[in-house]
Amino acid sequence: MNITSEQLSNAAEKGIISNTQVKELLTFVKNHPGPGPRFDFTHILYYLGGMLAIGAMTLFMNLGWEAFGGWGIFIISCLYGAGGLFLTRVFERKQLHIPAGICAVFVVALTPLAIYGLQKGMGWWVPDAVYRDYHRYIRYHWIFMELGTLAVGAVMAWRYRYPFLLMPIGATLWYMSMDLTAMLTGGRIDRELASLVSFWFGLGYILFAFFVDIRSRKSADYAFWLYIFGVMTFWGGLTSMDSSSEWSRFCYMLVNLGLIAFGVLLVRRVFVIFGALGITLYLGHLASTIFKDSWFFPLSLTLIGLGIVLLGVWWQRHEQELTASLQGILPEPIREMLVGRKS
């Protein structure tokens, strides 16, 4: 829960705390910030510099590095990785957790480049692909680079325990779900199979994130990035499936409603965002196909929207008792996770 200075001032006006205590609390928080990320200029510089360095070795890699050859790419990647590890250790000792986590992610992000250089140096690489295509095209021969990245990411996450390390792991699992489809089809991407693989892979991804969420409920938020890539994979597969009947499209809308409800329950915005996108797509289909040129459709949507607003007002009035009743039937670990998240 984020407490603002305005809330503290209102508490002082009602006599809950004194104005002196408000000033002392604000001074204490300013001088003793938490280790987590914040939206201030210092953290913007941290993440801007970190993402530039990571992007330079991943998304923005050009063909110029091919001139170094396989062994040259491998050696340079290892030197960069050693520098990243050194900075991670230095920042860790100085209790600078954000830059330490960014440097640790930089090391993991270098792993596919290093494996690419090693494979090319050993003569194991296919001649018609270069590293620059790793982040652009779906191909089955990226699989060893992805497995190596997952292994290095797991070791780094176990050693340093920074939640940001789950970002490259989550992205790599997302890549792997697409590349596994290419492997199953022999390099030929079949839309129906790709949708099914993405759907089931994303569902398993979300369940794994939920497991991590429960296990880490008393520590940092390690499930954040896993939820993001899991929902992206699941929703992408679901949305790209062939919907030949209105009943299947209606079920698609119900699944997206379920995503919104699940997101509200877990206090995870990513479920709500993608669920809302799915419902918007379904309503767009109704407006353009089923109820095209119908005067009743906009009117009914307006009434439904106002009804949802009234439901929100009713929920706000009874939220505490309803939440307590619903959480009472949940297992203790899940209840602890939800209570800790909302507080």
Describe the protein's architecture and organization.
The protein is an all-alpha fold. It has a domain at 190-318 and 331-335. Helix content is 74%, strand content 0%. It contains 13 helices and no strands. Helix 5 packs antiparallel against helix 6 (143-160) and helix 8 packs antiparallel against helix 9 (224-240). The longest helix is centred in the C-terminal third of the chain and has 33 residues, at 296-328. The protein is flat. It starts with a helix and ends with a helix.
Strand and helix map with partners:
Layout: H1 5-13, H2 19-31, H3 41-56, H4 69-93, H5 97-121, H6 143-160, H7 166-184, H8 191-215, H9 224-240, H10 246-266, H11 269-290, H12 296-328, H13 332-342
Helix pairs in contact: 3-5, 4-5, 5-6, 6-7, 7-8, 7-9, 8-9, 9-11, 10-11
Structure in a nutshell:
This protein is an all-alpha fold and about 350 residues long. It has helices at about 5-15, 20-30, 40-55, 70-95, 95-120, 145-160, 165-185, 190-215, 225-240, 245-265, 270-290, 295-330, 330-340.
Name the descriptors.
343 residues; 74% helix
- Categorize the overall geometry: flat
Poorly predicted spans: none
- How large is the count of helical segments? 13
User: Average pLDDT, to the nearest integer?
Assistant: 81
Helix content: over 70%
Rg from C-alpha positions?
24 Å
What's the count of strands?
0
In percent terms, what proportion of residues is strand? under 5%
Helix vs. strand class: mainly alpha
Distance between the termini: 5 Å
Order of helices and strands: HHHHHHHHHHHHH
Instruction: Outline the biggest β-sheet.
Output: none
